[in-house]
Structure formats: structure tokens, C-alpha cells
Specification:
The protein is built from 28 helices and 58 strands. By secondary structure, it is α+β, with helices and mostly antiparallel strands. The protein folds into 6 domains: 170 residues, Rossmann fold (3-Layer(aba) Sandwich); 231 residues, ATPase, nucleotide binding domain (Nucleotidyltransferase, domain 5, 2-Layer Sandwich); 104 residues, Dna Ligase, domain 1 (2-Layer Sandwich); 68 residues, no CATH class; 227 residues, no CATH class; 294 residues, no CATH class. A 9-stranded mixed sheet has the order 20-15-14-23-24-36-35-32-29, with helices on both faces. The chain has a 7-stranded antiparallel sheet with strand order 38-37-41-40-39-42-43, sandwiched between helices. The protein has a 6-stranded mixed sheet with strand order 3-2-1-4-12-13, sandwiched between helices. Helix 2 packs across helix 7, helix 11 packs across helix 12 and helix 22 crosses helix 26. The relative contact order is 0.08.
Length: 1277
């Protein structure tokens, strides 16, 4: 390692052990000795361990002597063994890790079960979740909290010398110790775990990222008792208890497997693994190598894929040219995409297998589309995956009875050639690929499609259609990496690797507007090659809370101890100082925001501020006139791998003399279906081609492990280490079909992906550019695109309550403004009479205008919940509002931006001054955040407009609008089919349901289904009149509930748009609380009545028992009052709290989740206490609150908060009087409870607040929310 001189050449071996194949790369540094091969990862007839077998084969060739398998391997001539492995990933996905226990702070035993309280799939009524990683939890009676809070507008210095309970944390912030752990009691608890057979434990305590003392004390004791311990503050000392706790648990769950594997691996060598000493290295998820002793489960999740990123970054990037690269790694079950533009992009919080992890990882995005992805024809659409045929049974062509897959489509169209594959298929694994079976399967599917749709597709058109849809699916995450960050995709080169990438490279590049594809000679084993090129790293990260301006003079000394640690560690591994490089980072953000960026120190200065400002503008589209804060200091020390020299692609292209390839080099002619026809094309063997050979498309190039298709209009240039595919000319705009009425289901499927991708990227833009916790962390927003009349086209699945409702808001503006708007105009509205839901949900609506005709072509819109917009209560969720003006600022239509000019003064009048004129009301308490978030919403809309315009430019306006209508018609067809099935299930009888709000108000529903038309009437006649309260729900809310239920009952991945409501007629008599007047209070209608309507519709369909039926809205804060003409500074905080979901005929209800019409996250406990003056004492599952039944309902939650200063607290909730009913004999869930623990002159009292109340709580007072459970399904057996 390093550049230490050696007496004789030693070989460096790199191995990537995948699920199916193990890839091996070996070479002697500074020589031409190089070996590359693959072997099966599991082949028990021939060897016990694939990496060991790979090393044996390498050494046989290197030494020139036979090495019998039964003999132990001597490593005397091995320089290093570098490995990547999928062991941790597979164990996490399959939940096959070690028995582990979690030790956590008292009150939080269920925190990782609840997580962020969002459900994984919003339309899945079963709310299925993967099981927890730990087997048991032990609560430790210890506690610290933050002494100061960030939202305090009146900060005062704190003298810790005057209070023995105060200490300074590692970030410099002041911590209050509330409870010191009792080590004697903890020893007894650990003893019980040990007696129970546990040997691996995770520890995660509140605020341990800045005060790790309690974790360290317990960890020391546990290690002395013989436990393997994963400590959250050691693994990643970063704020947020949920991901940090998940990370510690994942490490405890996975690391023992890693250790056992390494130990077993060592049995193949003389002296065991200890004898390998410093030679055995593993690739980590962050792209750095580490010694085997330091390799942990947490850092192994992306071990193999990280090698691929290192491989293409080091072998394909040209630092002089600076053309950014997109990695495209297409495997059997999924495709990994990544980006490299001179530096590695790392992320520090990711989700894998429903586990949120806090650990540095390369930014690799995965889509469930690979060679083994199953082809589906569903509801008139072509779909790819997400399910995979795997290796067993595999695709149809594997001869084991598998389904049609992407691999089959490539084989059928001539892109894979059976004669060049080994005969390893069939039951006895001794037969070739079965082309005939694949051809028959496509013929059968084609007949089915043609029969259902009245079409005349050929099997070839069907197969190529599936490949088009697959390419579009794989392009979506790439667009997120580029367009989602404001970067042009077409500026990149695509680097493809993985076994299936070569067949799709040209098509994916063309879909993205990219004109160059690079394929390395080792592309099929690029992860192993990247592992060979990787550097040994040691990373140190420390939390730090300070103003950057205060630290700038001493930055070098701040970094010094972290640099010294890296230097010492790598020096111990044999790296001299000249072979160690350091990357220095500060994790920076603007004050009052959560959008942090990890900024690397510039080469020639310490000017982090300028780099941050520029990068913030590039990433988010704006900068702020605020202080820049430091959250973390990070040093990445790299022991550089030497012995490689690279000629860049551009250098190679300049140095070789290109010549059109001779036909004589063609191995044969082969038939390939491309550009809609069968074509006889030349087939070339890559090892028979010479540098400079220019291969025109269409043609096929084979190497030892993959097939590369050069499409028409492309050419391939052979270089010494690469194959470069270049587009010969720009594509003409796609021509439109002659028959304007014909909807091609293939094109429809492609547009379905494209429309959804636009909505998703709008959502990502809003999440990144917003500043408030409500949008950025709780994700209480939705983004969508609409037709010229306001009909929903595509809505990324964010908040269900917004799904149908947003179209009412857009349709209102479309009718109001007609074609009187101009480019650069942006509208804002929130009034229920203008299609709004409740006032805190603010709509920003922008037209896509034809600049020649001023005609509106599309609309884009974003709806976001603002944490405060004024009114009578902090948080703008008053529980007792009677009139809409009490709920805050309202506007039916206002030009937020007029032809590019932001109307801030008019906005100030509407949000600050006008609401304060009403009795008892104030203007918004979060004016700065409101303005920033509205600008973020407008920026998200601009993103959507640009992407729609790109789509129009690519396909033409009439084609885009035709498929906009087509995707709506497809959804309509699916819903009509569902309604016919429901009609038959209930023998044509009407479906009826009645339910009551807590105040006794009645909801009535009768559904009549017309089987012939496939339509239904939802009749709410009999519903109680408008309420003198705030549970009135605008009409749009009822439509949202209906579209949500219909989509959930379909239970397939279908387009969600206006077409879902086309077969539905809704009767809502005027003057009910589901169709209130313009002045009615509605703040609770959006959050709670919406849930009750949803349960009512599900009850009518007899689909599921009632869920908790409320959002448990909690707000607290202070300030906003106008004194001497100025608003008193303060804050408003808002959260909604999870509960139990209702059971169904085949599933138990889920506990501690948000249900139905919401799916917002909840603020992490540590973030909550850092920002606001409160202590969260408990957040747990309310055991036994779910209704009993054949399938029981899910349990609700308990949330207990103590306030550390006087605040106004409001709670708005339902199901406090009438419990969530069961169904089919199932019992109801428990009612919710809201309790005020009050300290006054009468002592400590527990006061029931009822469902809706506001109170002025003093310092030390607490609120306890016990949310309802879900109803049970069926009688208890």
C-alpha cells in the first residue's frame, strides 16, 4: 500500500462478491500483468467460498504453479486483497441479521417503530412494513436536553457555573442533565439480556451526538460484560435520533455477520485472517477502503456499488475537459445511477429497506428496473417491475418456467445472442438460452394485448415497447440527479457498466439528450476494478454549532486535531506523509433553515463562505441574507493508491487515428430489431478490434461478458481502454402520428413516466429550496401539473388530501383569468371558496403560456402547509374558530409575481397587516419563512414549466396534449372497471354508510353504481348542515377522499389524475358541513373531517375498519401581537400525530402511523428540542388501543411534551367521544385523549382538554396526547 518499495513484485487483488457472480481484478502495480475474470458466487460442488477461489486462480497464474483447493493459501506475494460484498445489503433486505437489542432513553422504546410516522406506500391500506431490526428494547432511565432553543427571539447568555446540572456539549451548546444513569440498575438490565442469549446491542440516547457521556458509560460497561456494542455517537455524531438510532441498530444487526464472514474467509489462508494482517481491505459505502478490523455493517450497505462509482470516476473522468459523468450500472434486478463532476457526491442520510440510515454514502440512486425485471401488461399500460424474476426461476429463456423479463425482450429482438452464452440453463443447468420459449411468450402476450385493445401489434413491437418503457423508467432517477438539481442532463457523458448496460446505453442516452457514452474495457467488472483503484480512507466528523464568521480566523486550528487523527491512523497502516491527502469540509447552512451543504475547502484559501453561497445558489436557486452556521467539521484522510496511470478518453481520442472498420473484422451477420424493423447487422468481437477502429451503427459488439448494441445514428470508436459511442447527428423532433385519435399504449406508458417525473422533480425542488420545518422536514406539500382547464394530469404521491383538491384550486384560477395572464405571472390562493382546503395550505399556481398566442397550455401548482399565517392562535390551527377570518390570512387570487416582479409589499399587507385588523387576531408569526417558502413554491413551478416545455420541444404540443388526455382516459377506464366489479360483489345493491363527528353531526353516504356505464353516484344527502365551528370541509376535500379510496381499492400502480373522477357524480347538497359557505371556518375540515369522510367511504365499500379518524393537530407558540406598531417576535410550531390504522379482511391494522389523507412526517425529537422550548418525555405506542377482531386494529400513540416557557397550546382532534368503529363484527379502537398536566397553586392536576381546546400553559406544564387506535375486522375467533 502507499508507495512503499518492495523487493519483488507483489500482486494486488480486488474482488466484488455479488449475489450471482463474483468479479475479480488482479494486477501487479507498474507492470502489465493483469487478470480479469468472473466466477459464480455460489458453486458448492467446486468450492466453498468464491473470493477465496478467485484468489487461488489468480495466484496459480501469477506463480505459474498449481494450487490445490484443499491447501491453505500462502499470501507472501500478495500486496493487498481488496473486497466489496453484498452480505450486509442482502441481510438488511431479507431481514437475516444478528439477534440485536436496543438500549434507548426512557420514554422512547417505540421510537424506531414509529420512525417519522409516514407509511411507506400511501395507497396501501394494509400499511405493510418490514420488521424491525432489533428483537427487544431496554429503556434506560437517563436524560439530557438543550438549555437554549433556536427559535428564541430573545436569546440571553447562559452562565453554566451557576447551575451544576448544566454542561457544555461537544458543539459548544449548553446541555442540561435531567437524569444521570444508574449504572447498577443498568448492569442488571444488561445481565438479563446476556442471559437471554443476546450478544449484540445498539445504544442510542437523546442528544448523544453532542453529549455522549451517558452512551459511553453504558457502552463501556456492556463491553466489559462481553457484548458487541454499536454506539450511535461513535458511529455518526449527528443530530436526529431516529436515523442515528436506526444506524446504530443496523450496525449491531449486521456487523456480527461481517465479522463471521471475514473469520470464515480467513480459514482459507495460512495463519487465518490474523495472518493477512494489513493486507485485507474492504470497500465502504463512502467509496473508501478500510482495514477488515474496522469494516462494520453500517458502512457496508453500498460496498459493491461504491466500487463502480470509483471505477468510472478514476478511469473515465477528464480533469482538464471537466465534462461531468453519469454512471449507469444496470444489473439483474435493479439499476444504480450516480454522478461525478470532479468530486464525489456524498449523502449523509438515506433510506434502505425502510431503514433510515445516518452514515456517509456515495450518492447512488436505485430504480427497480434491471435485466430480470418482469414485464407487465396492466390496465392498458406497459409496466416494468418492480418485481424481478431473480436467478431462480429467472426469465423465460432460462428454461425454469419464469416470467417474461427485460432480458427476454433483448434476446427476442436480437440484442442478446444465445450462441455466445454458456450452456448453464434449464433444470440441470446444462442447456443454452431458450429463444423459442421467449418468442412464444411474446406471441401470447401480443395476442392478449391486441385482443383487449383492438390493436394489431407485432410481438417485436410489444417487446421493443417494453424496452422503451424500461429506458424511460431508468431515466427518471438520472433526471433527478441532474435536472432535479438545476443541471442540464445533456452536458454529461453516460458511463455504462453492469451486465445489461450495453444493450440499453444508446437508447437511455438518447432519451436524456446525451450524445456520448463511454464503456470501459472492464465495464462488466467495474466495481472490482474500482475497488482496485480505491484509496484507504479514515474519516472523522465532529458536531459543531457556531457562526462561520466567528470561526473563520481559527479554522486551521479547528481542523488540526482531526487532521492529526487521520495522519496517525494512516501512518500506522504504512502510508508515508507524501501519500496521504486530506479533504476538509464544513457542513454549513443559513440560520433558520435546515438546508445544509457539505462544503469542501477550496484548494488555495479558507473561504468556505463564498463556496457555500455559490453552491447554495446553484443547488437551490437562491441565497439568503442570513448568518451562515456551522453544524459539523469533517476531515477525510486518504492513503492514495499508486501504481496506475491513465490516459483520459479525450487524450485517447486525440492520440488514435480513427478509421472506418473493415468488413473483414465482422465475425458474422446477425439480425437485430431496431428502429422498428429487422436489420442484418455486423457482429464484432471486441477483442478482435484495434484502437482507432470506427464501428458504425447499427451493429453489435461482443466482449467476454456483455453485448453492446450500437444503434442507428451512433458510432463506436475503439480506444485502448474504452469503447466510446457517439451520436452522429441530432435527432429530428419526434413526428406525430397521422391518426390524431390513436393512443399508442407504449407511448402512453412512456408519457406516464414523463409526467410523473416532472411532478416528482417539482417536489424535490420545493423540499430542497424551502426553509421551514413544515415543508422541508415534515414534507407537508404536494406538486402537480394540470390541463388548461385545471384537470389533474400528474401528482407526485405526496399528501393524499391534496390529490383531488388541488384541481379545484387550479380550475378556479383558470376560469377567473382565462387567457389574461402573461409569462412570468404567478398566482397565489388559499381560500376554500377558490378551491382551497384550509388557509394554512397555500397554493402557488403558474400557467404554462404559449408566448405567441397567450394561450394557457398547462398549469403547474404547488400546495404547501405554512406553519403560521396569523389568526387567533399560534400555528394558525385554532380549535375553536367560528369564522374563517379567525384562521389567518386569506386570498382568493393574488399575483404573487407579476411578469417577474415579486409583489412583497402587497403580500405583506395580506399576510401581516390585514389579518391583524380582526378582533383577537395577529398577522403571520413567521413572515420571513412564509416569504422564503412562497419563493420556493414559485421556483418549483418554474422547474415544472421548464420540464414541460422541454417535453413539448421533444414531442410537439399536440402529441403532449393528446397523451395528457390519454393518461386521464386510461385512469377513467380503470376506475370504471373497478366500479363494475364492486357492483357485482354487492349484487347491484346500493352501498350505504353513516357516521358521526364527535359533536353528533351526521355524515350520510349512499353509492349507486351503474354497471353498464361503469359509473357511480356518491350521494351525501342527509349530512348535517354547516357547523358553527371549524370542521366544515370544502367540497374539494370530499373529492380528495373519494379519489384516494378508489385509487387504494384498485391496489395497482395506476396513473392518478382527473380521469379517476370522470365516472363519479357527487351529490353534495348546499349548506352542509361538506359544502359550506364562503365565510365558514374550515381549518379542521382539511385535517380531520377529511379523515372521517375517508373512513365513511371505506365503510360503504366494506373495505376496512375505521382508522384513527384524525390528525391530532397540535400547535404551540407565542408572539405576533402588535405593540407600538410592531409585531412581537415569537414562533408558531405545528405537528400532526400518528395513530392506529384500521384492520381489513386479510390484515391487522398498523400501529403508530399516519393514515389515509395525510402522510406528513413528524419532527425528530432532537430537532424539536433544539428548535423549541420543550422536552419530549415520551413518544411511544399506546398498547392495547387497537380494536380487537379476527384481524385487530392498529394501536395509537402516546406523546408527552413539557414546556420550558409560557406558550399558547392548541389541540384540534376528533375521535375523543365516538371511537373508531370496527367492521364485520370487529371491535372499535380506543378513543383518543388530550390531557393538560397543570402546575398551579392547587398542585399538579391532570385536566381533560376534550377534542378541541386552547390553553395558556406555564413553564413546567405538560400536554399528553393519546391518539386513537384503529377498528378491528371480523369477530374474535
Amino acid at each position: 500500500m502507499g508507495s512503499i518499495p518492495t523487493e519483488q513484485p507483489k500482486i494486488r487483488i480486488a474482488i466484488d462478491r455479488g449475489g450471482t457472480f463474483t468479479d475479480v481484478h488482479a494486477y501487479v502495480p507498474n507492470t502489465r500483468h493483469e487478470q480479469v475474470f468472473k466466477l459464480l458466487s455460489v458453486d458448492p460442488k467446486n468450492y466453498k467460498d468464491a473470493p477465496t477461489e478467485g484468489i487461488r486462480r489468480v495466484l496459480e497464474k501469477f506463480r505459474g504453479t498449481r494450487l490445490p483447493r484443499q491447501e491453505l493459501i500462502d499470501t507472501w506475494d500478495i500486496e493487498s486483497i481488496r473486497m466489496g460484498t453484498t452480505i450486509a445489503t442482502n441481510a438488511l433486505l431479507e431481514r437475516q441479521g444478528e439477534r440485536a437489542a436496543l438500549l434507548t432513553t426512557k420514554g422512547f422504546r417505540d421510537l424506531l417503530v414509529i420512525g417519522n410516522q409516514a407509511r411507506p406506500h400511501i395507497f396501501d391500506l394494509t400499511v405493510r412494513k418490514l420488521e424491525n431490526l432489533y428483537e427487544t428494547v431496554v429503556e434506560i432511565d437517563e436524560r439530557v436536553t438543550m438549555e437554549e432553543f433556536l427559535e428564541n427571539p430573545e436569546k440571553q447568555p447562559i452562565d453554566i457555573s451557576k447551575d451544576s446540572a448544566l454542561v457544555e456539549g461537544s458543539t459548544g451548546e449548553v446541555v442540561r442533565i435531567l437524569q444521570v444513569p444508574d449504572m447498577k440498575a443498568i448492569k442488571a438490565q444488561l445481565g438479563q439480556l446476556y442471559s437471554g442469549g443476546f450478544r449484540s446491542i445498539a445504544i442510542c440516547f437523546m442528544h448523544a451526538y453532542l453529549y455522549p457521556n451517558h452512551e459511553n458509560s453504558v457502552a463501556k460497561l456492556a463491553r466489559e460484560m462481553g457484548f458487541d456494542v454499536s454506539v450511535s455517537s461513535e458511529l455518526q455524531p449527528t443530530i436526529k435520533m431516529v436515523p442515528r438510532g436506526n444506524s446504530a441498530t443496523a450496525d449491531a444487526y449486521l456487523s456480527p455477520l461481517i465479522k463471521r464472514y471475514v473469520k470464515n474467509f480467513g480459514t482459507g489462508f495460512k495463519g487465518g485472517v490474523e495472518a493477512i494482517a494489513g493486507k485485507l481491505l474492504f470497500m465502504q459505502s463512502d467509496g473508501g477502503l478500510c482495514l477488515w478490523q474496522k469494516f462494520s455493517g453500517l458502512r457496508a450497505i453500498l460496498s459493491g456499488p461504491a466500487g463502480g462509482v470509483i471505477g468510472y470516476a478514476k478511469s473515465c473522468y477528464d480533469a482538464g475537459e471537466k465534462r461531468p459523468l453519469l454512471g449507469f450500472d444496470m444489473g439483474g434486478t435493479s439499476t444504480d445511477v450516480s454522478r461525478f463532476a470532479g468530486t464525489y457526491d456524498h449523502v449523509f442520510e438515506t433510506e434502505t429497506a425502510e431503514v433510515t440510515l445516518q452514515v456517509p454514502q456515495l450518492d447512488i440512486n436505485t430504480v427497480a428496473a434491471g435485466g430480470g425485471s418482469i414485464l407487465h401488461w396492466n390496465n392498458g399500460l406497459f409496466a416494468i417491475g418492480p418485481d424481478s424474476a431473480g436467478a431462480h426461476p429467472g426469465p423465460v429463456c432460462y428454461r425454469k418456467g419464469g416470467p417474461l423479463t427485460v432480458t427476454d425482450a433483448n434476446l427476442f429482438l436480437g440484442r442478446l445472442l444465445p450462441e455466445f452464452f454458456p450452456a448453464i440453463f434449464g433444470p440441470n443447468e446444462d442447456e443454452p438460452l431458450d429463444y423459442e420459449a421467449t418468442a412464444k411468450a411474446f406471441a401470447d402476450m401480443t395476442r392478449m394485448i391486441n385482443s383487449e385493445e383492438g390493436l394489431d401489434f407485432t410481438p417485436e413491437e410489444v417487446a421493443s415497447g417494453f424496452l422503451r418503457v424500461a429506458n424511460e423508467a431508468m431515466s427518471r432517477p438520472i433526471r433527478s440527479l441532474t435536472e432535479g438539481r438545476g443541471i442540464r442532463t445533456s452536458d454529461h457523458a453516460l458511463v455504462t457498466f453492469g451486465g445489461a448496460g450495453g444493450q440499453h446505453a444508446c437508447d437511455v442516452a438518447e432519451a436524456l439528450g446525451i450524445n456520448m457514452v463511454a464503456i470501459h474495457r472492464f465495464s462488466s467488472i467495474l466495481s472490482a476494478y474500482g475497488i482496485a483503484l480505491g484509496d484507504l480512507t479514515h474519516e472523522v466528523q465532529r458536531p459543531r454549532t457556531d457562526n462561520l464568521a466567528n470561526m473563520e480566523k481559527n479554522l486551521e486550528s479547528e481542523f488540526a486535531p482531526l487532521v492529526d487523527e487521520g495522519s496517525e491512523i494512516l501512518g500506522q497502516q504504512g502510508f508515508p506523509a507524501q501519500d496521504v491527502e486530506y479533504e476538509l469540509f464544513l457542513n454549513l447552512r443559513y440560520a433558520g433553515t435546515n438546508s445544509s451543504l457539505m462544503i469542501r475547502k477550496p484548494a488555495e484559501s479558507w473561504d468556505f463562505a463564498s463556496i457555500f453561497t455559490r453552491q447554495h445558489h446553484d443547488e437551490f436557486g437562491f441565497t439568503l441574507d442570513r448568518e451562515i452556521l456551522v453544524d459539523d467539521i469533517r476531515v477525510r484522510a486518504l492513503g492514495k493508491t499508486r501504481g496506475h496511470s491513465f490516459e483520459t478518453i479525450s487524450q485517447a481520442l486525440k492520440s488514435v487515428s480513427t478509421n472506418m472498420i473493415s468488413q473483414k473484422k465482422s465475425a458474422k451477420k446477425t439480425k437485430v430489431f431496431t428502429a422498428g424493423v429487422w436489420d442484418d447487422v455486423n457482429l464484432y468481437r471486441l477483442d478482435h478490434l484495434a484502437p482507432g477502429d470506427l464501428v458504425p451503427g447499427p451493429s453489435v459488439i461482443l466482449d467476454q461478458t456483455q453485448t453492446i448494441l450500437v444503434q442507428p445514428g451512433w458510432s463506436a470508436t475503439v480506444l485502448p481502454r474504452h469503447l466510446v459511442l457517439e451520436k452522429a447527428s441530432q435527432s429530428a423532433p419526434k413526428t406525430e402520428e397521422e391518426d390524431e385519435a390513436f393512443i399508442d399504449p407504449i407511448q402512453l406508458s412512456v408519457f406516464g413516466h414523463r409526467f410523473m417525473s416532472i411532478a416528482e422533480q417539482m417536489g424535490r425542488s420545493l423540499e430542497k429550496t424551502s426553509v421551514s420545518i413544515n415543508i422541508k422536514e415534515r414534507l407537508d406539500y404536494s406538486c402537480a401539473i394540470f390541463s388548461p382547464t385545471g384537470g389533474l394530469v400528474a401528482n407526485a404521491p405526496h399528501i393524499p388530501c391534496h390529490l383531488g383538491a388541488m384541481s379545484f384550486a387550479v380550475a378556479y384560477q383558470a376560469e377567473l383569468w382565462g387567457n389574461r395572464l402573461r409569462p412570468g405571472d404567478v398566482l397565489v390562493s388559499n381560500h376554500p371558496a377558490a378551491g382551497g382546503s384550509h388557509l394554512p395550505d397555500v397554493n402557488v399556481i403558474t400557467p404554462v403560456i404559449d408566448e405567441k398566442t397567450n394561450e394557457v397550455l398547462f398549469w403547474v401548482a404547488s400546495r404547501a402547509h405554512h406553519a403560521d399565517i396569523g389568526g387567533i392562535c399560534a400555528g394558525s390551527m385554532p380549535p375553536h374558530s367560528k369564522e374563517i377570518w379567525q384562521e389567518g390570512a386569506s386570498f382568493t387570487s393574488f399575483k404573487l409575481i407579476e411578469q417577474g416582479r415579486f409583489n412583497e409589499e402587497e403580500l405583506r399587507e395580506l399576510m401581516l397587516e390585514k389579518p391583524a385588523r380582526y378582533p383577537g387576531c395577529t398577522g403571520t408569526r413567521t413572515w420571513s419563512d412564509n416569504v422564503s417558502d412562497l419563493k420556493a413554491q414559485a421556483a418549483a413551478n418554474i422547474k415544472g414549466i421548464r420540464l414541460i416545455q422541454d417535453c413539448i420541444k421533444e414531442y410537439g404540443l399536440s402529441t403532449v396534449q393528446k397523451y395528457m388526455n390519454g393518461i386521464q382516459a386510461n385512469a377513467e377506464k380503470i376506475v370504471r372497471s373497478l366500479l363494475r366489479k364492486v357492483h357485482d360483489e354487492f349484487s347491484g345493491l346500493p352501498l350505504e354508510a353513516v357516521d358521526y363527528l364527535d359533536d353528533g353531526s351526521m355524515m350520510c353516504l349512499k353509492i349507486h353504481i351503474d354497471r353498464e356505464q361503469g359509473s357511480a353516484t356518491f350521494d351525501f344527502t342527509g349530512t348535517t348542515g354547516e357547523l358553527y365551528g371549524n370542521l366544515n370541509a370544502p367540497r374539494a376535500i370530499t373529492f380528495s377522499a373519494i379519489i384516494y379510496v378508489l385509487r387504494s381499492l384498485v391496489n395497482e400502480d395506476i396513473p392518478l389524475n382527473q380521469g379517476c373522477l370522470a365516472p363519479i357524480d357527487v351529490i353534495l347538497p348546499e349548506g352542509t358541513f361538506l359544502s359550506p359557505s364562503k365565510g365558514a371556518a374550515t381549518v379542521g375540515g382539511n385535517t380531520d373531517t377529511s379523515q372521517r369522510v375517508t373512513d365513511l367511504v371505506l365503510q360503504a365499500f366494506q373495505a376496512a375498519a375505521a382508522s384513527q379518524g384524525t390528525c391530532n393537530n397540535l400547535t404551540f407558540g407565542y408572539g405576533g401581537e402588535v405593540v407600538n406598531g410592531k409585531a412581537k417576535p415569537g414562533f408558531g410550531y405545528y405537528e400532526t400525530i400518528a395513530g392506529g390504522s384500521g384492520a381489513g379482511p386479510t390484515w391487522a391494522g398498523q400501529s403508530g402511523v399516519h393514515v389515509h389523507m395525510t402522510n406528513t412526517r413528524i419532527t425528530d425529537p432532537e430537532s424539536l428540542e433544539k428548535r423549541y422550548p420543550c422536552i419530549l418525555h415520551e413518544f411511544s405506542i399506546r398498547k392495547g388501543s387497537g380494536g380487537a377482531g379476527k384481524c385487530p386494529g392498529g394501536d395509537g400513540c402516546i406523546r408527552e411534551i413539557e414546556f420550558r416557557r409560557p406558550v399558547q397550546v392548541s389541540v384540534l382532534s376528533e375521535r375523543r367521544s365516538i371511537p373508531p368503529p370496527g367492521i364485520q363484527g370487529g371491535e372499535p379502537g380506543k378513543r383518543g385523549e388530550n390531557i393538560w398536566v397543570r402546575h398551579d397553586e392547587y398542585g399538579v392536576r391532570e385536566i381533560m382538554l376534550g377534542g378541541k381546546n386552547t390553553c395558556e400553559m406555564k413553564k413546567g406544564d405538560r400536554i399528553i396526547i393519546r391518539s386513537p387506535g384503529g377498528g378491528g375486522y371480523g369477530k374474535v375467533e
